[in-house]
Give the backbone structure.
Amino acid sequence: MFEPFVDVVPSFFGWLNQGPLTLTIFLHTIIILPMIWIYRQEKKRIEHEEN
Amino acid sequence: MANNHLTGIGSESKELATWYFTFAAILFGAQLLFGLVAAIQYVMPGFLFEVLDFSVARMLHINALVVWMVFAMFGAVYWLLPDETGIETVGIKIGKLLFWVFAAAIVVVVLVYLFIQVGSADEMSIWFIHEGREYIEAPRWADLGIVVVALGFVANLFLTGMKGKQTGIVTVLMADMIAFAGLYLCGMFFTDNISMDQYWWWWVIHLWVEATWEVYVGALAAYGLITMLGAHRKVVEMWLWIEVTMLFGSGILGMGHHYFWIGTPEYWWEIGALFSALEPLPLVAMFIHVLYDWGKTQGEQDAQGLEVSVIRNKPAFTWFVLNAFGNFLGAGIWGFFHTLPQVNLYTHGTQFTSAHGHLAFFGAYATILIGMMYIAIQGTNGIKVMNHTRSSIWSVSLLTGGMMGMTVALTVAGYVQVLVSRAQMGATWAGYFDGQSGMWFAQAMDWRLLMGVVMFLGFALLAKDFLTTGKNPVHQR
Amino acid sequence: MAKKSVWSDNRFWQRSAAWITGFASVLLIWLTFDTMAQITIGTDSDLKNGVTKRVPGPTVINYKITYEMSSKRGHEVPIIGGNDGQGMSLFQEKEKFFGRDDWSEEEATELLHLGKLGSQVKNCMNCHTLLGNGAYYAPDLTKAWLDPQWGPDGSMQAMTGKNTKEEAMAEFLQNPSKYPTHSRMMPNLGITAEEAKGLVAFLKHMSSIDTNGFPRNFGKIEGAVHGK
């Protein structure tokens, strides 16, 4: 399932780099996901202000 | 003095801004002059050989570039601070003193570059001649001076921002400028390890031009739209926050595209490729933002039956629109061309990079800073609506046309290098010179020089316009 | 009345900007720690114990360096002291550098220090590229040490009247305009014999850095170059 490690020194990021996109999709996801939480909070605030 | 957008009279902060702008404009001229010397040397290698060699001309070319932009950036902040915060800048006396310190230091550094040029391989040369690291060659004594000046500037900005009204624009500038100044420290040490050297060197270069400077431009564009069009602050600042989100979101890790080949691990291929591939997005957003606000404000006014342009400063606005487009084209498109590692393996270190560098610095930074200079001319001369003059139109056309021509020429030269020197001949000494002597390369260099001359003419007209337009009767007072 | 959208709310974007900037910065710092560990310069004992480093120790100047395809990595890698046949360095085969292959760690470090200083003070980067960064007025120096031009079949040893690569390079660096190789000449930068030695050590060391296969096919297509 996993690609063998080829770079000189094994590392966490090197391990996530399993082929095109794996590492970057992972990083983008953890960067973007919390925005959903910020969105929900702000939505609640706006609804609260409108009432 | 909350709403003195259009007048700089009576504000010391704005007076200081004009000093910064003046010095910046002079350095801009110097940058073009040394660029011409270097361009001539590509065509006639014997030109000024062992008098003012390419290495020296180019060092002056790129250092003048960085310094004039930093000067104009400081100037623009001093210009907009009273408008945004509603108060006079705090500590302006120190600001003025630091201007003279900064300017004097630059003059000394330039004289040393010109007349001493190289030293012997020891620490003394690094301290007093130059550090020989592209873009941040300034000798170490000057580095320390720059840190002091930058600290003073950031202190002025923070004290004013905290005392006065803290708008979204000021908040973004405060966060951005402290990062901008702090990052300079990453480029101040010496190491024997060239990989380590270049790793930290990019922290300065990349995180300046592809992160903090871009955000700075976003803030400046926001200010410009409010002052020149009367755009709604709330809408403009929302766009600004979206731009900050996207610029820092892509730009900070986009740094990975400089870590493909300098000895750093392979995982940077992926990080650099994909994050930097997203870097054009905020630039598209900025372009849309400027055109959208322009159309919207004009439309609102048209609806009231007023048949006049909403633009209160035509030359400045021209430069701001060129900035929005040039940033996208030069930094965005030309950057994306060669940001993927599969492509960059062959384009890294060729005229391709040079084409991108020229159009990006011009499109993203030179344009908007020239626009700010026009805003300052409008303000200091008490002009209500500033119109184009014959020389403002000619200068903007020649400068932009020259830069586009130069970029295309360098791109063609880059193709030759990539195909002949790199792909076909494997990047050796012989391969390099085979590429350089190809007809397409040689002709591209001729065109580049010609376009450089066109730009220089444009600059001459720009300087003339700066000096004379204030008193021109075409403007509404 | 239509509800106000979060997407056009300034506070939402302000908080998103703060989150993304902060998190991207933290990630960058984390990645920097990881990379720092990997690109720290190696030691003499690494070389002696056969430990492959991305940036080998300065005593790499005692070894023979080549640039060969590694099937595992999928690109060329620097091979130090012989190839084990799989694209890994053996760290065995030595090569004399200015007549010696027993430069001590101290001596080699000093030489590299002088060379790196020299490369900055002489402003190499404003004509050449190093690791691909710099100006484009002169050839890339990343693997200059391995350039066939300086080898036994190249023209530079004969031109400078020297029998070894390092001596030819040092001679050229001291009197560049005496040996014009192209109409675009290198200017005389007042490089002393000692500085030249340091610069050549710096170049040899740089050629041993693992640059993930940049430049591609370096020096492999001699036929095309010389066979025009």
In short: Confidence is low (pLDDT under 50) at residues 1-6 of chain B. The two ends of chain B are 19 Å apart (CA to CA). The longest helix of chain B spans residues 194-229. The domain at 1-166 of chain B is CATH 1.20.210.10 (Cytochrome C Oxidase; Chain A).
